[in-house]
Structure formats: structure tokens, C-alpha cells
Amino acid sequence: MDNGMTQAPLSVAGLGVEFSDFRAVRDVSFDVRHGESFGLVGESGSGKSTILRAIGGLAPISHGTVRFRGEPVRATRSRAFRRAVQMVFQDPYGSLHPRQTVERQLSEPIRILGLDDRMDRIRQAIEQVGLNASFLYRFPHQLSGGQRQRIAIARALLVQPEILLLDEPTSALDVSVQAEVLNLLMDLRETRGLTYLFVSHDLAVVGAMCERILVMRNGEAVELLTGDQMRSGRVSTDYARQLLRASEGYQPGITRREAG
Amino acid sequence: MTDISTGAFERIRTGLPSSPGEARLAQAWRGWQLLRASPAALTGLAIILALLLVALFAPQLAPETPYGQALDRQLVPPSWDHPFGTDEFGRDVLSRVINGARYTLYIVVLVAVIAAPVGLLVGASSGYLGGWIDTLFMRITDIALAFPRLILALAFVTAFGPGLNNAIIAIALTGWPPYVRIARAEALTMRKSDYIAAVELMGASRLRIILVHVVPLCLPSLFVRMTLDMAGVILIAAGLGFLGLGAQPPAAEWGVMLSNGKEYLLSGWWVATFPGLAIFFVCMGFNLLGDGLRDILDPRHEA
């Protein structure tokens, strides 16, 4: 455990991801420190989600290394990695199996990893995300988007991971529900000492959630910022500035001036 | 006690169950509600249920044994004593039609049990795994699909020798390719989905993903296709029986009866007509039910 405290639980060095002839991620390096919330931000297609998927083993690592507790991960992730690293997906409508009850979906990680006390763990997990046992035997189509995302978070928490890979966990939700889910994530991080790798295109969300933020563009890292810098707008690259301005909403003339 | 059961019923009816069993019942209840709304599907269901009951209680329902010959009453037209008349050996046609339901059910069930699981597993693995496995399986399937079904069944039966069981094996052997196609198409749509990615991330084995996560989603469309196929299976079985390559006389199989009856079509129309009608109704029943099930089980119906 000391080991995990001193060295970065997750570090990425020179990561490149290629799909046949398309380079989605190019030479990206960063460390995620123990207990921090590290943000990846950029427009769609900037490769931020692909980095998460590469870390989780869902996309190929073409170049560079991903280290988990200092050890490079192998193509088949270790059992320790599976237990320690879990992912929450962007679309809560697509991340739950449409024909399995909530209870069945939450059982799956327990069965796969061969853990005991199945029902206790499930009850605990579902209460942690602010739902109750009455949701257990419903199907996803009987739940709202926010409820689905809570179930997806509960599923990720079931195996008591240290690191959560959050792939735009609120972008598919209504604004009011977004705030609820973000608050839930902040609370969970505090109470369970989780480490987050948080991907979003929403600078406000990332600014509020993360201590350090990596700005990405076209598969490359542009600038590493602290949350303070992001919130106060003290950025050094043009692209980050442009992104910040774009997040303030549509203002006529900006793009034209920027282009000229 | 009544409270508990009405409570459970209420939970099932409203779709808010409190146990895995209730969740399944709630699904079934929803399906029944949808099925009830479609008169055509209900008619189909009624015909198939009638087939099941007739096959199950054939000895009790049939007024006579289907094989009792009585040469003193050959080709008696339909009457109160023999509602469907008698055939060239004086056998009661009604009794034979009722017993024929058993053959039909036997054929349908065996073909489904042999062909569907093979098609399902091959198709689901092919679609989910992709790569060279997919290529290999699909080329084999393409080759099998290139043969006309009845002709291939004829060839098999000729090779194995005529008989009911060989006819069933032949129909099953020629019946799996469409199921492969369907299961593969379903598996392809979910292969890159996040709910599969989620279980991959948990470290589930490929076998587990295919059996536990992919196969259940292939089942509805497979089930619909199977029901619709059953009409074709019955027709092919009857056709093989008619050609003398399936069930053999004196078996009271509808195709065999048709084949015998064709000799007497002018002097005794009832000998061939009633087994023909039985084939017609059962095929129609499977088609109507299949159409209804397609409306109910299609996963795209629920958001």
C-alpha cells in the first residue's frame, strides 16, 4: 500500500494508439497521482476517450507504455488491475445490458472476479449511489438516464476499485441530473479515497472536478494545467485559450477574428 | 397470504418486481399484454396450442386406432360415424389426422432443437469474435446457403436412406444457416457496445461474454425466425413424406396420407383433403404467431 502512495498508481508514457491507418493518439505522457482527479479535456476526436479505452484494454496500445503501480500493463490485464481500475462510460443508455435486470448486471463483476457476499455487496453499492434495493429487479428501460448512470457507477464501484476511468460520465444527461451525478462522484471520491481519470469536453465540469488537467487536440497533448489555472483562465497556449473562450458560449465574431 | 400474492401480482403487473422470478414474470406479463393486442398472433397461438393438445392427447381424442384396417368400409365419405371419412383401407381419417399431429410436433421440435442451438452458437461466436473465425464460419454458411433446401434434404435422405428420423436430420442439417446469419447480425451490432466493453473490462472470458451477454440478445430474433421457419419445416417434412422419403406408410403422417390420398382424389376427395387442411392450418398458425412474436420480441421496440 505504501508503494501506491509514493509512486503514481497510473502513468502513461509516450502512448500512441493506431486504428489500421488512423493515429488516434500520438505520444501522450502523464502521471495520475494517488487520490487526485486528473482531467483530460479537448474537443471531440481529440483522442481523450481513446486514451481511457487504451488504459482499460479496450483499445490497442500501439506505442509507449501504460504503467499500473509502476509495472507496464500486459495485453491481458492482470486480476489486480481489473479489481483496481474500473470505468464509467459516456452513454448510460448504451453501457447497461438491455435485457438484464439491475441485479444481474451488478452481479456480473462479482461473479467474474469470484468474490463472495454477492447480495451484500450489491445492496451496499446501490445505496452508495443514492438508489435503493427496489431498483434491483428493474430493467434499464425502466430507469431514467440519471438512474442508469448511477447504476453504471455502482457497477464500477462493486469491486472496490482505487481508480475510476470516467468517460464523459455526465455529457449524456440533463443539466440538473449532471449536477447530481457530479456531486455523487465528488462525494464518492472523498469518502472512498478514489483516484479519478476524468475525460470531458466540458471545461466547467473539468475545472470543478479536477486538480490537474491535460488539454488535448488531434490526439496530442497541448498543455498541462492546474484546476486553478483553468478556472482563472491563466493558460499559455492559443488552443487552450480558444477552448476556454468557446466554453463561455457562442459569441458572434470570435471565430472570425481567431481565423483572421 | 392473499395480501402477499396480490402484492406480487401488482408488482408484476406494474413492472416493478422485487425478485428475479418476479422480474421474469413481469417480462412475460408485458409480452402477453402485447400479444393480446394482436388478433392474428392470438389466432396463431391458439392453433399452435391446439396442435400441442391434440398431439399430447391423441390416443384419448382419436375415436379409433389410426392403423385399424376394415376392408368392409373402404372410402366411406364423411358422415357422423367418420367425420373425415375413411381411406382406402377403411381406416378412420379423423383418427389418422389426429395422430399425425404427433409426427408433426416431433419433427418441428427435433429440427428446432438440433438446428437452432448450432446456428445460435456459431453465429454469435462469429459475430462477436470476428477475424478469421468469422470468415471461416461465414464461408461455410454461405456454401450451405447456396443449396436449395429441399434438394439438399433430398440428397441427404437419399444418402442415409428414407425414414422419418433421417428426414428430420436432413431438414436440421439444411436448416441452420439462416440462424447463423441472424445471430451473427445481432452479435455484430452489440460487439462494440459499451455494455460488452464493460464486462470485457471486468475480465470476463470470451466464452462467458458470448454465452451470458451476447446469446440472450440474439434469442428474440432467432425465436421469431424459428417460428416462421416451422411452416417451411412442416412443408418439407410433408413433402419428403409425400415423395416416400420421409415417414413410411402406414405411418399416420400428414405427408404420407396426402401421398396415399392422391390416388383417390376423384373417388374419395376427403382422404387427401383433411391431412392437407391440417398442414395448411398448422403452417398458418406458425406464420401468424411468428409475425406476432416479431412485433413483441424485437428488441428495438424498447428504448
Total individual domains of chain B: 2
Number of strands of chain A: 10
CATH superfamily of the largest domain in chain B, please?
A: MetI-like
- CATH architecture level-2 label of the largest domain in chain B: Orthogonal Bundle
Structural class assignment of chain B = mainly alpha
What low-confidence regions of chain B span 5 or more consecutive residues with pLDDT below 50? none
Shape of chain B: flat
Helical content of chain A (DSSP H or I, runs of 4+): 25-40%
Q: Overall pLDDT of chain A, averaged?
A: 87
Helical coverage of chain B, percent range: over 70%
- Annotated CATH topology of chain A: Rossmann fold
Mean pLDDT of chain B: 87
Class by alpha and beta content of chain A: alpha/beta
> Hey, roughly how much beta strand do the residues of chain B contain?
under 5%
Shape of chain A: globular
Largest interface summary: A-B, 37 and 28 residues
Q: Please report the distance between the alpha carbons of the first and last residues of chain A.
A: 54 Å
SSE series of chain A:
HEEEHEEHEHHHEHEHEEHHH
CATH superfamily of chain A: P-loop containing nucleotide triphosphate hydrolases
Features:
heterodimer, A: 260 residues, alpha/beta, Rossmann fold, six-stranded mixed sheet, four-stranded antiparallel sheet, 10 strands, 40% helix, disordered N terminus, disordered C terminus, B: 303 residues, mainly alpha, MetI-like fold, 2 domains
Descriptive notes:
The complex is a heterodimer of chains A (260) and B (303). Chain A has a single domain (2-259), classed as P-loop containing nucleotide triphosphate hydrolases (Rossmann fold, 3-Layer(aba) Sandwich). Chain A is built from 11 helices and 10 strands. Chain A has helices spanning 2-6, 48-56, 79-84, 102-113, 118-128, 145-157, 175-192, 203-209, 227-232, 238-247, 254-259; strands spanning 10-19, 22-32, 37-41, 63-68, 71-72, 85-88, 163-167, 195-200, 212-217, 220-226. In chain A, helix 4 runs parallel beside helix 6 (145-157), helix 5 (118-128) packs across helix 6 (145-157) and helix 6 packs parallel to helix 7 (175-192). The model of chain A is unreliable at 1-5 and 256-260 (pLDDT under 50). The longest helix of chain B has 37 residues, at 93-129. Chain B folds into 2 domains: 1-37, no CATH class; 39-301, MetI-like (MetI-like fold, Orthogonal Bundle). Chain B has helices at 2-14, 20-36, 39-56, 58-61, 93-129, 131-145, 149-160, 164-191, 194-201, 206-242, 254-261, 270-297. Helices cover 74% and strands 0% of the residues of chain B. The mean pLDDT of chain B is 87. Chain B has 303 residues and is an all-alpha fold. Chains A and B meet through helix 4 of A and helix 2, helix 9 and helix 10 of B. Chain A: It comes from Primorskyibacter flagellatus.
